[in-house]
Design a protein that fits this description.
By secondary structure, the chain is of the alpha+beta class. It contains 14 helices and 16 strands. It has five domains: 75 residues; 126 residues, Cytochrome Bc1 Complex, Chain D, domain 2 (Orthogonal Bundle); 106 residues, Cytochrome Bc1 Complex, Chain D, domain 2; 44 residues; 114 residues, no CATH class. Helix 1 runs antiparallel to helix 2. The protein binds heme C (HEC) (2 copies). The site of one heme C has 27 residues, from helix 6, helix 7, helix 8 and helix 9. One heme C (HEC) binds next to helix 6, helix 7, helix 8 and helix 9.
């Protein structure tokens, strides 16, 4: 056989094999090599060789294969989510099939998987993990069933923020994601299938699509800075002593001259991939405005002790706090909300925003205090879930009575209208049966203030707050320009090549 015939036959074999492999979706070839060549490249090369070398019958065969391949190639270009885009009806007789369609929306058009994981072993991020959300959804808001909660989560994500997370989730029914009602229904079925029961009951959308407009709010240009200078600002300010960024080596503990305590902080290598620049700007100027879940600092008074550490998680029943012992060992403490020490509330405004979960107050027309979970709050009223019932109480209501219960060492319990003093003072003054009485705190075992009591959890950011004072306006815009390059892959490549360049220059 001549070399020419060998090449002809080899090329024919490569063409047929690569065609079949491409259609079957086999991984690239040669498999063990670093530089994989996609089957489509092998195919195109062999088609060209065959058309040049072979006689007409094989040319014709080659041409037909090429046409079929071309159609398959074009079909492959259309994103996978297109299968879900055209949802025209959902077949509720098979809820599992609806959930499968929902999974396509979740991973495709809905872009949910860009933020959310469905895997408990995934690292804690800025967005809640949705493992078993089908079960958890029923416990998120007192008195709200799972489906209603999921509907609210998708249509009005900012309404009930998951504790510890910021307003990051977009309105997925608006542009640019713009899910249709059917797509959202399918996603809800998918979410419910995560550990829960799929509830096929139809619902009305809590929004008005006609009002929404279709143009996503445009962000005014923020980025006039120079990313390379921004990287210098980042290093000079020692951001990298807490934050990992691929391509920037973290300083050894104690090596920077900064006066803050180094803490575990979120990795920033991909921070610009899912965040707008406004959020990044705010993260630096007002670190406490939105605290990344799992990184906030808390001081909790409970069971007569003080726990100071990182808030790991929080729900309507308990909180988990991670503390460090003197020798650097980490310990996790699970504390029931009922075990938190009561704190008097001086001002009945913005209770939820200020971190209160529960409220104990004595309305003017009642004798006994009411205690319940705060469900909803307006300027004038607060709705409590007391046992299985909800009750709306007026805040103004002829001044909610300020009462204090004192217990003396003799075991006497006296309840009176509160005038002044606490156990830290020398005396407490109450009005009991219309006349003022002064109690020496040395005679008292306990005094509980009962105008309103709540359980408060104040979460702060461990990130230093003085950066705004340290940075000039141009530092800040350089820094933001640098952060905007941190989108994962490209950022790594860029910083690496930059580093290589710097090394070469030295
Ligand atoms: C840009 C990031 C982002 C995208 C995209 C996103 N989410 Fe979210 N989502 C969040 C954040 C942050 C929260 C927590 C704050 C809140 O409650 O809004 C959240 C909360 C939720 C919750 C409530 C979770 C809980 O534990 O109570 C659900 C359910 C949810 N998202 C579903 C979805 C679905 C479905 C999609 C896609 C259609 C989606 N999200 C897209 C960021 C995102
Ligand atoms: C003392 C440690 C520390 C230093 C120094 C520090 N940070 Fe942070 N940073 C944190 C912690 C902890 C969080 C997470 C809690 C929060 O959201 O505030 C955070 C959050 C952030 C976030 C939001 C991350 C996310 O995933 O949403 C950004 C952006 C950020 N920091 C940027 C910076 C920049 C830029 C600097 C330097 C100018 C800096 N940080 C310096 C500890 C630090």
């Amino acid at each position: 056989m001549s070399t020419n015939t060998l090449i002809k036959i080899a090329s024919l074999i490569i063409m047929v094999v690569s065609f079949i492999a491409y259609i079957a979706g086999a991984s690239a070839f040669p498999i063990a090599s670093e530089n994989l060549l996609p089957w489509s490249v092998w195919f195109i090369v062999s088609v060209v060789v065959n058309i040049i070398l072979w006689h007409s019958v094989i040319k014709l065969l080659t041409f037909s294969l090429a046409v079929i391949w071309f159609y398959a190639f074009v079909a492959g270009l259309v994103p996978e989510s297109s299968t879900a885009v055209n949802l025209t009806e959902l077949d509720w007789s098979d809820p599992d099939a609806v959930a499968e369609q929902g999974a396509l929306v979740f991973n495709g058009k809905g872009q949910c998987s860009a933020c959310h994981t469905v895997d408990t072993s995934a690292p804690k991020g800025r967005c809640p993990d949705l493992t078993d959300i089908g079960v958890h959804a029923a416990n998120r808001q007192p008195g709200m069933d799972a489906k209603t909660y999921l509907i609210e989560s998708l249509y009005e994500p900012a309404k009930y923020l998951v504790p510890g997370y910021g307003k990051i989730m977009p309105d997925v029914w608006k542009a640019p994601i713009a899910l249709s009602k059917l797509e959202i229904e399918a996603v809800i079925a998918y979410l419910q299938s995560q550990g829960g029961e799929i509830d096929p009951t139809p619902y009305d959308e809590p929004i008005d699509r006609a009002d929404a407009g279709t143009v996503a709010a445009a962000l005014p240009p923020l980025l006039t800075g120079d990313a390379a200078l921004g990287k210098k600002v980042f290093v000079a300010a020692a951001c990298h002593s807490c934050h990992v960024v691929k391509g920037i080596e973290s300083p050894v503990v104690g090596e920077t001259t900064q006066d803050f305590e180094v803490v575990t902080a979120p990795e920033l290598s991909e921070i610009a991939a899912f965040n707008d620049m406004r959020y990044l700007e705010e993260s630096i100027l007002k670190p406490g405005a939105q605290i990344v879940s799992g990184y906030g600092a808390v001081t909790v008074q409970a069971k007569g002790a003080t726990f100071q550490g990182t808030l790991v998680s929080q729900d309507t029943e308990k909180i988990v706090v991670r503390t460090k012992t003197a020798d650097g060992q980490e310990e996790e403490h699970t504390i029931l909300l009922s075990e938190l020490d009561d704190e008097p509330i001086e001002d009945l405004a913005n209770l939820k925003a200020n971190g209160y979960f529960t409220l104990t107050l004595t309305p003017a027309d009642a004798d006994a205090p009411r205690t319940g979970e705060i469900v909803e709050e307006t300027d004038d009223t607060v709705t409590l879930k007391i046992g299985e019932e909800t009750q709306t109480l007026s805040k103004a209501d002829a001044d909610v009575k300020s009462q204090m219960t004192v217990i003396t060492f003799d075991g006497d319990t006296i309840v009176g209208e509160y005038v002044s003093g606490t156990m830290d003072d020398d005396e407490i003054i109450l009005i009991v049966d219309g006349s003022e009485e002064v109690f020496d705190t040395f005679d008292l075992e306990e005094a509980t203030y009962a105008r309103a009591l709540g359980k408060k959890l104040l979460v702060t950011s461990p990130m230093p707050e003085n950066f705004p004072h340290l940075f000039s306006v141009s530092d800040m815009s350089h820094l933001l320009a640098f952060l905007s390059t941190l989108t994962g892959e490209t950022a790594t490549a860029e910083t690496e090549s930059e580093e290589a360049g710097e090394a070469a220059a030295e």
